[in-house]
């Protein structure tokens, strides 16, 4: 996956990772990192440039919900070829009246990561991380590295080592 780019052990190259990711990368010793042109950070551009199918990439979206005065946040990781079921499954699991994607400026400030590079690695510890089964079962998946200038590649099942990570059936379709 993205074999034309040199892959390096992510634990040995924290300088390539976003600041929040550095503190958690040791939980994923098999993760590899590779550098990219930041202009190619979005999945469609990256895959087109390197001839990879979008199904090899996972996208992490931050969803917020509210019920009365209580607000909740969750990170959802699904394959780039699918869509997270925000209005039904996520809303019900969060136990909120309304759920929506977090605004870009708030998602980046809360996560400490760059837009287009948000990854489940290094998110605030009180955020649940819900992973679609297709991501967890992937032999390898390409995800953000917290910065638009790099990507991580790792076995999908490795992501379950992250705090508050769980596989959620029906998360995406």
In brief, what are we looking at here?
This protein is 19% helix and 26% strand.
Describe this structure in words.
Helix content is 19%, strand content 26%. The protein contains five helices and nine strands, in the order βαβαββαβαβαβββ. The protein has helices at 19-22, 43-50, 86-94, 104-111, 133-136; strands at 8-9, 32-35, 58-67, 70-79, 98-101, 129-131, 141-144, 150-154, 165-167. It has a five-stranded mixed sheet. A four-stranded antiparallel sheet has the order 1-2-8-7, with no helix packed on it. A hairpin with a 2-residue loop joins strand 3 (58-67) and strand 4. The chain starts with 7 loop residues before the first strand and ends in a 6-residue tail after the last strand.
User: How big is the Rg?
Assistant: 15 Å
How far is the N terminus from the C terminus? 23 Å
SSE order, one letter for each helix or strand: EHEHEEHEHEHEEE
Number of helical runs? Answer: 5
Question: Helical percent range?
Answer: 10-25%
Poorly predicted parts: none
Structural class: alpha+beta
With strands numbered from the N-terminus, the spatial order across the biggest sheet is 5-3-4-6-9
Describe the biggest sheet? 5 strands, mixed
Number-wise, the strands total: 9
Give the overall silhouette: globular
